[in-house]
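User: We ran a pulldown and think these components assemble together. Before we commit to crystallization trials, I'd like a predicted model of the whole complex to look at. Sequences follow.
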Amino acid sequence: MQPSSSGAGAITAAVLVIGDEILSGRTLDSNTGYIARYLAELGVDLREARVVPDVTEEIVAALNALRGRYTYVFTTGGIGPTHDDITADAVAQAFGVSIDEDPRAIAALLERIPAGKLNAARRRMARIPAGAELVDNPVSKAPGFMIGNVIVMAGVPIIMQAMLDAVAPRLRTGAKVLVETVEAGAIPEGRYADALADIAAAHGGVSIGSYPSFSSAGARNQIVLRSRDAALLTRAAQAVRALVDGLVSDNAPG
Amino acid sequence: MQPSSSGAGAITAAVLVIGDEILSGRTLDSNTGYIARYLAELGVDLREARVVPDVTEEIVAALNALRGRYTYVFTTGGIGPTHDDITADAVAQAFGVSIDEDPRAIAALLERIPAGKLNAARRRMARIPAGAELVDNPVSKAPGFMIGNVIVMAGVPIIMQAMLDAVAPRLRTGAKVLVETVEAGAIPEGRYADALADIAAAHGGVSIGSYPSFSSAGARNQIVLRSRDAALLTRAAQAVRALVDGLVSDNAPG
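Assistant: Here's a predicted model for the assembly, 508 residues in total across the polymer chains.
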């Protein structure tokens, strides 16, 4: 469950991954996980992620659904020079604003590309919706941008990561969610689930999840507690540790 | 862009990942990429993916949005024995059906868990919405299920993968999308983007994407063509190869 910060005042976010290459299975999306960890450090709650294809109406519909629900929406992908890079135009359409070559973006491109080689395709990377602020791209210069509460970033991970660093100082941030992990080892989830539910019910401000994993070494369970209230988190974690310590692994998997 | 199979007759799918642990950044979602590649082999077009938290109304809303749009919806996560495992109940709610302990699921659990240890938490894993068919779990026995066009699977990758194998024979499948990849090496995207757009426009039944990547060895671009029409794909790939062969890498990055 989401931490109790779900209430008023929480800074929330969604990620919108734009890219056929993710949906076809060609490329593994590592950006969402990176953004999730990055935002957690900033005290921003990532609440949803979506992957949509390179289809204008899909991008527009997802953007408009997400930007109304969350403090921020971070998009990745689709801002390069090729015909399948349609994100900037889709964002302009979603916001109902015009889009044109931005002199600031052209200036950024000219830091890397000689004027004589700034052809039509490359100039596409300078198309920025009206009213957007640029987000620097120190890697390859073609900028991202922020318009309203939407931050538009590249899909290439090292560029996306640099853009996230560039935009982070402009974001509203929250109190960081504190995390405690209790190792339940090979104790089957089914042995502690009922008692864990009681602990969760008794500690309303703490989100508690139980996460099994399997490897050649066998099953391993971890109980993860998350809260912005340090004292409450400590009390809940103590209760969970007492529960786990009181159990001895049996042979019934769960 | 999506292959031209977007039209009538295409078998489509969405993935719905249910799990706070993905959104918090604790766990990297590898299931979506696995399912994407798996469905591509079956000729099923993955069109969308979403990650939502362990919150009933979020799961219900996403399920109802997706199951009306695509041939199939594959969910992962939230079917274990702990209090944060709420997927089965959310699916029942989305379909407006009752949910109860399923004797077939109890029988499956009893293959692994002695009757005397089948406590309330473990019995939760046998709660199956009315009308659903079970999906076998050879790894840890607690089953997934299929109801209508929704396939509900575990979040643990090795279990999810086994469930996908179990359900695949029941799915309608399509013609596999054929893929050709043309290596553009270090040729900047900006040098071929205009001509590539022309090729894309001239080969309507072929989806063409250009994908840059960066490593310590420098930039590397790949042009990926996808189609269900082998002859058309070959012609488009020939045109792209001719384009790439005609270019010599210059020093202007793009």
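Chain A touches chain B through 79 residues (CB under 8 Å). That may be worth checking against your pulldown data before setting up trials.

User: Thanks, that helps.
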